[in-house]
Design a protein that fits this description.
This protein folds into three domains: about 120 residues, Malonyl-Coenzyme A Acyl Carrier Protein, domain 2 (3-Layer(aba) Sandwich), CATH 3.40.366; about 45 residues, 2-Layer Sandwich (Alpha-Beta Plaits); about 220 residues, Alpha-Beta Barrel (TIM Barrel). Helices cover about 40% and strands about 15% of the residues. It is built from 14 helices and 14 strands.
């Protein structure tokens, strides 16, 4: 029988990892302490008192140091793998285990890499998350849908069923330009990252600062949401964000679609004073969510607007309206990518991924928006509820 070892990548770190091994095995200590770093590796890895372990400049050397220690313990006890592999960052640990790097070299290289990545993102509101069990075409479509909110791309093909996406949110400068050039009220999505809606204290601090900033910049409203671990609307976190919003309009975003009980969540949103709930009816798109959307509109009974979103196009707005009574819609209005104006093109160099063209530009389609608006305004021209976002 052959033995293979797969080394974990970024994301599996946690405070306390390796502390018991460090205390029990001299071989672990020797490998773990081999590198010269500019921060206290023991403190961050074993205790993380400042909450920095999840920041990439710390995560990467901590993960590789931990793996180097485990490798040393295994080798000391006669465990030798026939095959070594790593997932994402784990490739550095696999190379170290194979003898390509010493423990010192691997950890210091990971520290250099992590710091370079952190420096590249400095001053940019960005993030990344791993997506499980979704193929690349489906995920690429999701990124395309989200691109209306900012840059979103697949940035790492770890393996089938495990892809990493990253991106940036609109900057204050972009928002100022939108407010200057857009004649309609602007509501801003507040979301610190992809993934679930269970937010840490640090993420809450960030969102509250962003809400305060956008309020001072003069936006009409914010689009927010937070859930508890058991899938309920997190009333405490919602109240905190709404307090920061002041007199701005508040929309509960599609965290609603991930909640356990949509009818209870709707009542909670009403009690909080939210003006609108953005939802696909807890379905892959609004057309598929028509049955629940209809029930939600009846339950809302004019106390809160139900905005149908996700997959809304000019050609399905009437169907959704006729079957649900909903008159408020959200659409990206995205057009097919435009060809770049570059006449000189260097095909041998990519600024992102080989699967993403450097010479395609994604834009909102004014004609698609105009068609949507015309249809919506034609539903009930006298209704004040009819709107497009």
């Amino acid at each position: 029988m052959k033995l293979a070892i797969l080394y974990a990548g970024q994301g599996s770190q946690h405070p306390g990892m390796g502390k018991d091994l460090y205390e029990a095995y001299p071989a672990f200590r020797a490998a773990f302490d081999a590198a010269a770093l500019d921060f206290d590796l023991h403190s961050v890895c074993f205790e993380d008192p400042d909450g920095v372990l999840n920041q990439t400049e710390y995560t990467q050397p901590c993960m590789v140091a931990f793996a180097a220690g485990v490798t040393a313990v295994l080798q000391e006890n006669g465990v030798k793998a026939d095959d070594l592999a790593g997932l994402s960052l784990g490739e550095y640990s696999a190379l170290q285990a194979a003898g390509v790097f010493t423990a010192k070299q691997a950890v210091e290289l990971a520290a250099y890499r992590g710091k370079a990545m952190a420096d590249a993102a400095k001053g940019i509101d960005c993030g990344m998350t791993a997506v499980m069990n979704l193929d690349r075409d489906a995920l690429a479509k999701c990124c395309e849908e989200a691109s209306a909110l900012g840059v979103v791309q697949i940035c790492n093909y770890n393996c089938p069923g495990q892809l990493v996406i990253g991106g940036v949110t609109p900057s204050p400068a972009m928002l100022e330009q939108v407010l200057r050039d857009c004649p309609v009220p602007v509501n801003v999505l507040i979301r610190p990252r992809f993934g679930d809606f269970l937010y840490t204290d640090a993420e809450m601090d960030q969102m509250c600062r962003e809400i305060d900033l956008f309020r001072r910049l003069g936006v009409n409203g914010v689009v927010i949401g937070a859930l508890t671990p058991d899938g309920a609307l997190d009333m405490e976190k919602m109240r905190r964000m709404m307090d920061c919003a002041g007199d701005m309009e508040v929309t509960l975003h599609r965290a609603f679609d991930m909640s356990r009980d949509p009818f209870r969540t709707l009542e909670d949103a009403v009690s909080l004073g939210c003006r609108t709930v953005l939802t696909s009816g807890q379905a892959p798109d609004a057309a598929a969510g028509i049955p629940l959307l209809a029930r939600l509109r009846r339950q809302a009974a004019g106390r809160i607007h139900i905005m149908a979103g996700c997959g809304v196009k000019w050609w399905n707005i009437q169907q959704i309206h006729h079957e649900t009574g909903i008159r408020t819609f959200h659409t990206t209005g995205r057009r097919a990518p435009l060809d770049s104006g570059m006449t000189y093109r260097k095909s041998t160099v990519s600024m992102g991924l080989p699967t993403l063209s450097e010479y395609e530009v994604w834009q909102t389609d004014p004609e698609e928006f105009a068609r949507c608006a015309a249809i919506i305004h034609g539903l009930h021209e006298t209704s004040h509820e009819t709107s497009i976002k």
